[in-house]
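Tutorial handout. Part one gives the primary structure; part two gives the three-dimensional structure as tokens.
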Amino acid sequence: MAHFIGEIQGNRGEASRTGSKKSGMTAHIRGWNIGVRVNIRHDEESGKDFYTIYETGGSNGGSETLIADLGER
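Part two.
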């Protein structure tokens, strides 16, 4: 069963995907030299969802820099 839902809109319309507590979800939105990667996951022990946000080097590659690592309050 879906625990997470992701949606994206571009020039070819909207698309959505689902993720379970076990699979989590990852999205990478990027230009050539800069991008953002968001990961969301569920922690069984605490029963809470957590997400991390990274700045990336975009399609050109390079390193990732952690912007935030947050969870449900």
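Part three, for discussion. The radius of gyration is 14 Å. The beta strands are 4-10, 13-19, 25-30, 35-43, 48-56, 65-71.
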